[in-house]
Amino acid sequence: MEQKRIWAFGGGKGGVGKSFVAGNLGILLAQSGYNVILADLDLGGANMHTWLGVNSPMKGISEFIGREVHNIKKLLIPTDIPGLSLISGAKDGVEIANLKHTQKRRFISALRRLDADYIVIDLGAGTAYNTVDFFLLADSQVMIVIPEPTSIENAYRFIKNSFFRQIFHNSQNFGLKSVVTPILRKDNPHNVNTPKELIDYFNKLGGRATVFIEEQIHSFIPKMILNQVRTERDQMVGPAMKKACLKYFNLDVKFMGHIAYDESIRKSVLERQPLAAAYPDCVPIKQLNKICANLLKDEKEFAGNNNILSKLAL
């Protein structure tokens, strides 16, 4: 690979299986011959080491953020999976609850300097700025959703907040921060509450605002995986959410596939063994292999399209 890639896994709700999906995809990438690092960024609730059967680490992200550890390589923990290393999460969420954006960028930059093909980030639940910012700083942004009303509702909120947060961060480069800041307030005077309304507002402004919003739409294409699927009706939730995002948000969300609920998943958790290692032939792993292939294919297509656009711009 020419450049290492960062995949971030997030979502609006806890208990949807972010660690399960991120961890097993990391293992499948390693089994395919890639050098992979799993980074546990569930700040305050880090448990990836337990899931991998690794003893509680002495140092993790907290120590790097707090500059107790200056070289991020010292945080790498080997696992029993060839080609897979782990960076443990924060032990105390309070001390890094209010990270500055410069600190987040510093951490991501440090990750990019590590010797790896793929860095897979497991994020915490919810739409806190820490979670959303790390999600946006990744190359591939993947949401995990389960076919339940609360998860679906929170996923829509996560998409909206992530898009608004991206607009906020990138507006300064276009000299539009003074325009964006009042719009993103809850009591905004322009009655802008959804990504679609935000897009329409910028298009009405015209000029550089239109160029800006078109660029943001092009760069914000989160991916979605549907987990804990039990019925055929459940399977329809992913494609239905993709259509709804396009219709009501004017945003393209790519559906990568679904994972069936299976008793082997619970067994692997109780046994402290990753599913991909303990039950490699089970249905969920076969589905995860397809999802992994879809993610890799989508990445190549996106890179190819960007190269074409770059040449056209020249």
Throw out a few tags for this protein:
314 residues, disordered C terminus, Rossmann fold, alpha/beta, eight-stranded mixed β-sheet, globular, 14% strand, single chain, 8 strands, 14 helices, 50% helix
Main sheet summary: 8 strands, mixed
By CATH, the architecture is named 3-Layer(aba) Sandwich
> What's the average pLDDT?
88
Per CATH, the class reads Alpha Beta
Question: How would you portray this structure in words?
Answer:
By secondary structure, the chain is of the alpha/beta class. It has one domain: Rossmann fold, CATH 3.40.50. 50% of the residues lie in helices and 14% in strands. It has 14 helices and eight strands. An eight-stranded mixed sheet has the order 3-4-2-5-1-6-7-8, sandwiched between helices. Helix 4 packs parallel to helix 5 and helix 8 packs antiparallel against helix 9. The C terminus is likely disordered.
Strands, helices and their partners?
Layout: E1 5-10, H1 18-31, E2 36-41, H2 48-51, H3 61-65, E3 76-78, E4 84-87, H4 101-112, E5 118-123, H5 129-137, E6 140-145, H6 149-170, H7 177-183, H8 195-205, H9 208-219, E7 223-229, H10 232-235, H11 237-249, E8 254-260, H12 263-270, H13 275-278, H14 283-313
Parallel strand pairs: 1-5, 1-6, 2-4, 2-5, 6-7, 7-8
Antiparallel strand pairs: 3-4
Helix pairs in contact: 1-14, 4-5, 5-6, 8-9
